[in-house]
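Protein modeling request. Please complete all fields; requests missing the sequence field cannot be processed.
Requester role: graduate student
Desired output: 3D structure, token encoding
Chains: 1
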Amino acid sequence: MDAGFRSYWRVHTPDGTGLLKSAIVMDSPPDQDDVRPWLKIRTLLESGGVRVPGVLAQDVEAGFLLLEDLGPDTYLHVIDTGNADLLFDHAISQLLKLQAIAPPADLPGYDDAMLARELHLFDEWFCGHHLGMNLDRDDMQTLDDAYRVLIDNALAQPQVLVHRDFMPRNLMPVQARLEDGAPDGPAVLDFQDAVRGPIAYDALSLFKDAFLSWPRLRVSIWLELYHARATEAGLPVPPLVQFMRDAELIGVQRHLKVIGIFARLHHRDGKPKYLADVPRFFIYLDGVLPRYPELSGLRRFIEHKVKPAVARLQAVAPA
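Delivered output (319 residues):
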């Protein structure tokens, strides 16, 4: 079971030669996680040459799909300091294909309202529900001013197809299916929430992951590599200095959003394990906020109000 309501089961069936062939059953309860958006985006990505799981059978009304078995491991299981350069180079290849696909006219946009809703997950679910903070008018003004900076930057970026969770956990190191000409991996998963949005979003998500961290210098090198390859591919990336700024600012938006989501998963959905990764995002924020005077209010709010509240909560937590 992932952070949503879908679950996955490996099954084995005879292949006609006396051997067993494995496949994956996706169980996606229709009243909680409609499978049709997943199928729609999968077709879109496949049409652009992106490696996605093959669909062997489907019962959309019941919420069941029978999928190609891509193996037990994602990038998150196999990536390490020695192979990261190669694996991320392959991941960039898939990302460039994804971003080259024209977003359909009916695809939702990462607009002002969506960006704001995501940012408010931080103050509502992490600060309010999790830390028990009572935010006053000045606190909310501070946050709203910072949110405005982040939203304006996101809207000003070139807009492309955005996966929204393009990270090692959603990439699988598979090879080509020679029998039907499928492209090399990594295979891309969990793409059903794709939108039209800022070009720096997915690249930043790839290198500043929710579940593992890399040295800042290495992240900068990978972002520069992505920028060079995206430029060569004809994607609408801005000049490098602007792109790196865009990546850091959209990263702040994503970090605040994910902190809020992880708190919501705990308090609303009974999934506490994600809270263990929240400190990673504050480390990301600590590395970026000091460089942006326009976010100084957010930085002070985190330093003087959020972190002391976190410390108080940890002090009373059961051992």
